[in-house]
């Protein structure tokens, strides 16, 4: 990773200039940043202005009405790890973004500490694994079910409820590392192995049908 | 555009051309074989003109242009040629050679026009009767003419029924397509709208968040102010694409001097309904100006092709809708306009409560299913009537003959059997058992008829009972199981051949008599039945799809109006806070805390509007006040959908929130809106009392509520009834 000798290079895509401008200010207290953070209100804007980035914080819903998963794909194609940064975490939309290559999701209301930790993890090439990440994975698991061992399904289900990994492992009577390994295996099955092109749109339509894609939560 | 209907019509035209062409050849051969019947040149001229029209029909049909004109021309030529017969025939013969060709044209005249055929078929029959009476005797000629007319009318009815079936299929499929397209449009609109709603929420949440942070941390207060102003204008519907109706209302409100806000989506293409809405809402606005005692008014809702709903609200002095008062004007001038186009108006008000006038409209839907049923039932009635008529005529024609049979009693039994068979084939419910019964009866009647007819009887009337059975077997083929009619006709023919062969007659005689006609009619009935059955299946399927689509559209409309009311509720909740942020007054620490709680509450409402009632919202607020970190998230739907309601989990969630110590992280995962399953996780220390409280509160929930705890976490799972798949 690159954030060792110098600060982290973080790009922000958010259609509210006020929020976008506030993020570097808040982050700087918890994380060494490298120079000015490039900020844009659209993905295209960031692609045009930024050169090299360690992490992109991407607002899921942008004013230009672009599809979230497409945005993720375009950033990932540039080689930039994407961390979703959103007001409302909708598992179905997050799922589509994870499939497109996003590395995790952080709520805008979560503290700077959480965001800073997530930026470090993602810049290091890892996924920011939290309950929302697992909840999105669960959407995929529920949607189409290739072979998934009962234990693996249980880990995803339990972890997505917000239980700490330690507690999940205890409930399943396995070690914490084993539980983590289960989670990693599920991730491979659903996010990496066989990522057919049609799946995302299919998933999107299905989510619409199922009412999962209600307005920001139009729940 | 090529429709199914056009394809069916073209097929009809080609069949008609084929039938006429064959008979033209037969007539031409007859003309050559019996010279001198007509005035020189008459027969060749008629045949040549008809041949040209047939060629034109085929050509136009394949070229994709309608072939109605040449067909109608052929019918006109046939009628004219027939009318000229008394003049044209020089040497009368029992069957003038041109009658084959002219009869074929008249028989298929229904394809050119059903109404035309209803006129020319009986006319042709009458002409044939007149031409043949000198040779056959008047009774026989009349009977033969009646048979001809009935045959022609059967063809007419069949063509009519098939064309109608094709039209029904076309309409039903078209209707389903229209609905499907409408649904796609609604989907598109819903997505756009959801996106817009999302932006509104982002702005609201962002403004509250930035404002509270600007107090606690370093943060630009100006940015919060700008975002709050944006959020306010978005909540008030500015920036939404407006419709022409809104412009007219805005102009009217401006003239009245009202401070009006509009949040109206979509547009109505139906001018009548649109004008009714424009006029009615203008009337409501005038009422607000006259009676509400203030100048502020909000118009919200949507106008769409399939559904319209406009709500006009004012915070004025209101009135009692039950008493006489301003309500009279509303009920008459406003309600009259909307009801005139099939809509409805509801007035909600109370003294001091302000007034809301709700105008709704939905188009009347034609029930596609029942219209499809109609043609199916109606199609059969004329066929039944014609079958009876044909039977009666055949019996009448044979009257003088069956009296000469070896056993008049057996002949009487055969006639009774024929009547019973025709009745059974046309009226019995089409079950397998009834089909087998009628088929067996037909065989018995045929054998009895064959054994009871003198072997020496001439071929042309010996098989009268076979001809008389044609309607009954057509009925069997049309109404009962596959191939039953054909099998029966074949078996019956074989039985007659057997009797003839054993008795010493040439066994093939029946094959040159009525058997081919019988078989042809039966096959035709099978084909018609198959065509109608296919058409019926298609119409039914289209009707089913249409019904589903209508349901889906209604659900979308419901969601849209829910989204509408959610936005209105959001505005009510956050507008004061946003106004406060926009104002220049500095925010205190207490303000900031209030804004944070408000932001969380808005977020909760967004994610789980149906879970949150006032009590639960208060419990969450209390817990957050104590330093509990409460996070409400939308969860993935469980594998199976439950029909139950998660309302039952609220007391348990409240108990948990009230008993967890400060510093605990609580995550409420809610899978909604229709799927009802929830999990609540509390992570922290000292959770045992909370777990006990949840168990006590959830005691009445049966197995739906499960609580499991370990050292540092409590997991509460709520899965009502049908959902058996547990998360974990």
Automatic annotation (TrEMBL), chain B:
Parts of the chain that traverse the membrane: 12-29, 41-59, 71-89, 101-131, 379-397, 409-428, 435-457, 477-499
Keyword tags: Kinase, Membrane, Transferase, Transmembrane, Transmembrane helix, Two-component regulatory system
Domain Histidine kinase/HSP90-like ATPase residues, every copy: 272-365
Matching InterPro entries: HATPase_C_sf, HATPase_dom, Sensor_HK_TwoCompSys
Superkingdom in the source lineage: Bacteria
The keyword Transmembrane helix belongs to this UniProt entry's keyword annotation: yes
Entries under PANTHER family matching the protein: NITRATE/NITRITE SENSOR PROTEIN NARX-RELATED
Record protein name field: Histidine kinase/HSP90-like ATPase domain-containing protein
Organism: Actinotalea lenta
């Amino acid at each position: 990773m690159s954030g060792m000798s110098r600060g982290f290079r973080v790009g922000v895509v958010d259609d509210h200039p006020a929020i976008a401008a506030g993020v570097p200010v808040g982050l700087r207290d918890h994380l060494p940043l490298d120079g000015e953070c490039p900020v844009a209100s659209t993905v295209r804007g960031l692609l045009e202005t930024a050169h090299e980035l360690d992490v992109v914080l991407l607002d899921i819903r942008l004013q230009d009405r672009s599809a979230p998963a497409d945005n993720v794909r375009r950033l990932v194609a540039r080689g930039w790890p994407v961390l979703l940064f959103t007001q409302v975490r909708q598992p179905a939309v997050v799922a589509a973004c994870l499939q497109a290559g996003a590395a995790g999701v952080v709520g805008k209301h979560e503290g700077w500490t959480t965001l800073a930790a997530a930026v470090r993890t993602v810049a290091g090439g890892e996924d920011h694994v939290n309950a929302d990440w697992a909840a999105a994975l669960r959407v995929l698991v529920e949607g189409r079910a290739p072979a998934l061992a009962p234990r693996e399904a249980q880990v995803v289900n339990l972890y997505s409820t917000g239980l700490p990994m330690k507690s999940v492992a205890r409930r399943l009577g396995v070690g914490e590392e084993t539980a983590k390994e289960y989670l990693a295996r599920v991730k491979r099955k659903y996010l990496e192995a066989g990522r057919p092109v049609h799946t995302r749109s299919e998933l999107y339509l299905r989510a619409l049908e199922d009412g999962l894609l209600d307005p920001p939560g139009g729940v | 555009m090529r429709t199914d209907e056009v394809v069916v019509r073209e097929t009809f035209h080609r069949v008609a051309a084929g039938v006429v062409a064959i008979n033209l050849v037969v007539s031409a051969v007859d003309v050559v074989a019996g010279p001198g019947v007509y005035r020189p040149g008459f027969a060749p001229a008629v045949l040549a003109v008809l041949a040209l029209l047939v060629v034109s029909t085929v050509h136009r049909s394949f070229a994709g242009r309608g072939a109605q004109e040449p067909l109608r021309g052929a019918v006109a030529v046939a009628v004219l040629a027939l009318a000229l017969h008394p003049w044209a025939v020089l040497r009368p013969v029992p069957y003038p050679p041109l009658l084959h060709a002219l009869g074929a044209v008249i028989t298929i005249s229904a394809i050119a026009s059903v109404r035309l055929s209803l006129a020319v078929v009986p006319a042709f029959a009458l002409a044939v009767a007149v031409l043949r009476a000198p040779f056959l005797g008047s009774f026989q000629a009349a009977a033969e003419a009646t048979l001809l007319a009935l045959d022609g009318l059967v063809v007419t009815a069949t063509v009519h029924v098939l064309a109608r079936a094709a039209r029904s299929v076309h309409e039903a499929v078209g209707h389903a397509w229209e609905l499907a397209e409408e649904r796609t449009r609604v989907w598109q609109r819903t997505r756009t709208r959801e996106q817009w709603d999302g932006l509104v929420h982002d702005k609201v949440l962002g403004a509250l968040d930035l404002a509270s942070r600007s107090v606690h941390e370093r943060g630009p207060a100006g940015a919060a102010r700008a975002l709050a102003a944006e959020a306010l204008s978005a909540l008030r519907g500015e920036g939404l694409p407006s419709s022409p109706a809104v412009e007219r209302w805005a102009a009217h409100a401006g003239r009245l001097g009202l401070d009006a806000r509009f949040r109206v989506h979509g547009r109505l293409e139906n001018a009548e309904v649109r004008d009714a809405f424009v006029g009615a809402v203008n009337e409501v606005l005038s009422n607000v100006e006259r009676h509400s005692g203030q100048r502020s008014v909000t118009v919200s809702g949507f106008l769409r092709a399939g559904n319209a709903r406009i709500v006009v609200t004012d915070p004025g002095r209101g009135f009692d809708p039950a008493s006489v008062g301003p309500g009279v004007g509303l009920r008459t001038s406003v309600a009259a306009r909307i009801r005139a186009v099939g809509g409805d108006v509801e007035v909600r008000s109370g003294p001091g409560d302000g007034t809301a006038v709700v105008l709704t409209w939905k188009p009347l839907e034609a029930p596609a299913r029942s219209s499809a049923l109609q043609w199916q039932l109606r199609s059969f009635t004329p066929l039944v009537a014609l079958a009876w008529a044909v039977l009666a005529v055949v019996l009448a024609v044979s009257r003088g003959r069956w009296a000469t049979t070896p056993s008049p009693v057996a002949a009487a039994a055969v006639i009774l059997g024929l009547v019973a068979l025709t009745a059974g084939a046309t009226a019995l419910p089409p079950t397998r058992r009834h089909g087998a019964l009628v088929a067996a009866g037909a065989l018995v009647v045929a054998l009895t008829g064959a054994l009871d007819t003198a072997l020496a009887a001439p071929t042309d009337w010996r098989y009268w009972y076979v001809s008389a059975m044609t309607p009954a077997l057509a009925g069997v083929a049309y109404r009962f199981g596959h191939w039953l009619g054909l099998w029966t006709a074949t078996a019956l023919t074989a039985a007659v051949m057997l009797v003839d062969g054993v008795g010493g007659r040439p066994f093939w005689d029946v094959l040159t008599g009525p058997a081919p006609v019988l078989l042809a009619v039966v096959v035709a009935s099978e084909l018609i039945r198959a065509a109608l059955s296919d058409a019926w299946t298609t119409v039914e399927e289209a009707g089913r799809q249409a019904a589903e689509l209508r349901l889906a559209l209604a659900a979308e409309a419901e969601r849209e109006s829910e989204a509408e009311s959610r936005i209105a509720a959001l505005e009510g909740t956050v507008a004061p806070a946003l106004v406060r942020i926009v104002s220049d007054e500095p925010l205190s620490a207490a303000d900031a805390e209030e804004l944070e709680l408000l932001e969380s509450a808005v977020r909760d409402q967004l994610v789980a509007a149906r879970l949150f009632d006032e009590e639960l919202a208060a419990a969450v607020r209390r817990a957050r006040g104590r330093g509990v970190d409460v996070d409400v998230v939308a969860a993935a739907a469980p594998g199976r959908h439950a029909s139950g309601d998660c309302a039952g989990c609220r007391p348990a969630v409240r108990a948990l929130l009230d008993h967890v110590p400060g510093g605990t992280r609580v995550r409420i995962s809610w899978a909604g809106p229709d799927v009802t399953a929830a999990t609540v996780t509390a992570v922290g220390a000292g959770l045992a009392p909370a777990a006990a409280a949840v168990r006590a509160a959830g005691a009445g929930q049966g197995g739906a509520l499960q609580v499991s705890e370990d050292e540092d976490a409590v997991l509460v799972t709520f899965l009502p009834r049908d959902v058996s798949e547990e998360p974990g």
